[in-house]
Fold this sequence. Notes:
The protein is α/β, with parallel strands linked by helices.
Amino acid sequence: xxxxxxxxxxxxxxxxxxxxxxxxxxxEKLEHPLMKALLWALYLPQYPGATxxxxxxxxxxxxxxxxxxxxxxxxxGTPIFWGEAGSVGRDKLAALxxxxxxxxxAIGKWDTALHHPADLLRQVLHGVKRRAPVDLISxxxxxxxxxxxxxxxxxxHADVLWQRFDPPA
Length: 169
């Protein structure tokens, strides 16, 4: 049974000792903000600074993003992780993977077979020089059960279908 928290329009959710607030728009299907929260929780162990719906000064606004810290490895404020939930246009995807070759991208789909999105992703990545992976994820309908009654998200890659596109060696 889905968490009672998801019956509201505003959710306070937790994972890995962190919390976020997700707001479901009035015309937005439940799955879109849910995927944002699930992407955030799924990649939080790798990117503890990840957050949701923050503009980064790009034409496009990521659904989930982690920015480079000021540690000398990357330019501070550069996205090191970028998550997109739901439909992502070919032009947007092509622009992003070229513009941010060192950014790990994750594209979340809701209860979808991965072969069609994977074909599109292969086309977009063809010939692009990248140094970070792109993950394609399908959240099954059962992912609703990954949020408990207290708003804690419990999800791992074992709970989803996913495919990683590593950069060429």
